[in-house]
Automatic annotation (TrEMBL):
Pfam family, one: PAS_9
Stretches assigned to the PAS domain: 13-86
Matches recorded under SUPFAM superfamilies: ATPase domain of HSP90 chaperone/DNA topoisomerase II/histidine kinase (SSF55874), CheY-like (SSF52172), Homodimeric domain of signal transducing histidine kinase (SSF47384), PYP-like sensor domain (PAS domain) (SSF55785)
Protein name listed in UniProt: histidine kinase
UniProt-listed PANTHER family: HISTIDINE KINASE, SENSOR HISTIDINE KINASE
Catalytic reaction annotation: ATP + protein L-histidine = ADP + protein N-phospho-L-histidine
Record organism: Stakelama pacifica
Gene Ontology terms for molecular function: phosphorelay sensor kinase activity
Keywords associated with the record: Kinase, Phosphoprotein, Transferase
Lineage of source species: Bacteria, Pseudomonadati, Pseudomonadota, Alphaproteobacteria, Sphingomonadales
Amino acid sequence: MMTEQSRFDAHLAERRFQTLINSVTEYAIYMLDTGGYVRNWNAGAEAIKGYSEQEIVGQHFSRFYTPEDRDRGVPAIALATALSEGKYESEAWRLRKDGTRFWAHVVLDPIFDEQGNHVGFAKITRDITEKRLAQEQLDQTREALFQAQKLQALGELTGGIAHDFNNLITVIRGSAELLQNPRLDPAKAKRYVDSIVAASDRAAELTSHLLAFGRRQSLSPETVDLNIRLDAFVEMLSRTLGDTIEVRLRSEGGLWTVRVDDTQLETALLNAAINARDAMPDGGTITIESTNIPASDGEPDLVCIALSDTGPGIPDDVLKRVFEPFFTTKPVGKGTGLGLSQIHGFAAQSGGRAEIESKQGEGTTVRLLLPRATGEARHVERPVSSVPHGRNLTVLVVDDNEAVLQFAVDLLESLGYMARTAESGDDALDILRSAHVDIVFSDVLMPGITGIELARRVEQDWPGLPLVLTSGYSEELVRDLDLRWELVPKPYTAESLSGAFERALSDTSSEVLRTDPG
């Protein structure tokens, strides 16, 4: 039973607490009854919201909310959430007495008496408008900096592309003009043709690196056994990097398989090895380590391939830019700056990631982290024709680029095929309905019906008809091809085209190799 003294002490404690609350001016602290009506009001609430205690006590707290929040029932949701979950907290716009808005951080707690009965709510509101504006300004500054960095990177990228491709175009155009001389010596003519082929191959290589960085490279993934692959790669490196570079392999054995493009994996590792060699002009050691990393922290099982050197290391300001295309610290003519960007793009497109770590004076480590494959690695020998022969079969060539279309026709005719042409998917379907066709060869990205859509129509309406696709841009291809059709990446050669056609024809029953009208 409460005595007179205990009642006095409780009253005194309540007054002291109220005095403390009233002295707080940076926070609006007040109580609501169970229905949400204001029961008391502190000086901070008056300073922030603009209402005096006489004006606001007895009013419903929903008047502090914006009309749109009231229409959405936010005040009632706040009370219900606080009661059911023990607390309600949010940031949102609130209204002052004069109608202006401020950005508020709000905490709402339910209050219970000694018997556990719900008697109301305690509400604390803080005006954090300045903090929000400061954060918005910081975000805008960061975005402006990001855009400036993007423009700088774009400038370096376009400058690098222009420089390298202008050099290649100079070789190709100059050689082509010299070949127009009717009295040209045959030996010189062959040299000029070889120059054109070499420049074209170099242009294709540059394009491949750019696509790798942009994660749009045409990949042919297969399940690879790294236990075997890395042994062969290290042996190749030991022969090609020179006598001053020692190559070591440290593998824990029993590596999981990975599903990647085997050629691009080798290219990525070779790019890392060449960078390491160039960082050690007086010689040094390259160590390739591989290990399984079990799934953790939301990541799947990974296989890590780390390539380390004993070079001088990379400064921090350079390290953060090494994956940018065309960024290089090498002298002019000694590197394109595309090697590490290819590694970055290949890893990302393969579902993994690339990392780099470096300490000045201690060397650099490049890591490829690739997802573990499901299934066994297997190698299937597929027929490839070393001496192409078209056997007078009719090919329907589909491409919206007239120059590429004509080149494909000339190349196929040189291989012994006969060709029909279509500049769109719709035209191709019309020809298939009305003419004899033994095999379809189509570009992937075209206006209207794409090559992928055309392939599906062919599969549906002419089941068993061989089909080969080609593309120099593979984002859609990687997503949708699903390895059902042969793919020849652009730029293609007579050998690559012939091999793809031979495989497509050999994979298809001889009973359904053609379409015939009617």
